[in-house]
Amino acid sequence: MWRIWKSRNDFLFQKVNRRPESTAQKGIHDVNDWIAATQEQEEETRTLSTSTDPPPRRRNRDGQDCRGQVILSGCARLQSSTSALQAEALGFLHVLQVA
């Protein structure tokens, strides 16, 4: 899904038109990389973990804690932007102002 979103943004903001086959292949490659990295991390966790305590609650980027419960959410109307970078910067600036 991320590759499709990235291709969409590249098309809208950078005027780059990617072939769907290329996007799909990159997405498959990303999934395979993620699976390999996750398996390696699970193996390391199994060998290093001796505690039966649950992991500490942390806030993820999506506003959920480690149990999947929403701890932060919101929306805002921001000024229009002319590029993806500018949109990200405006969103980040808004978060800093609200926090």
Textual characterization of the structure:
The chain has a domain at about 1-55. Helix content is about 60%, strand content about 0%. It has helices at about 1-15, 20-50, 85-99. Helix 1 (about 1-15) packs across helix 2. The protein has about 100 residues and is mainly α. The two termini are about 30 Å apart.
Lay out the secondary structure.
Layout: H1 2-14, H2 20-48, H3 84-98
Helix pairs in contact: 1-2
The biggest sheet, with number of strands, parallel, antiparallel or mixed sense and barrel status, is:
none
Question: Which value, in Å, is the CA radius of gyration?
Answer: 19 Å
> What do the pLDDT scores average to?
75
As a percent range, the share of helical residues equals 55-70%
Oligomer: single chain
Number of helices: 3
Strand tally: 0
Give the DSSP E fraction (strand runs of 2 or more residues). under 5%
Intertermini distance:
29 Å
H/E element sequence: HHH
Global outline: flat
Low-confidence stretches: none
Class per helix and strand makeup: mainly alpha
Main traits of this protein?
mainly alpha; 99 residues; 58% helix
Quick gist of this model?
This protein is an all-alpha fold. It has a domain at 2-53.
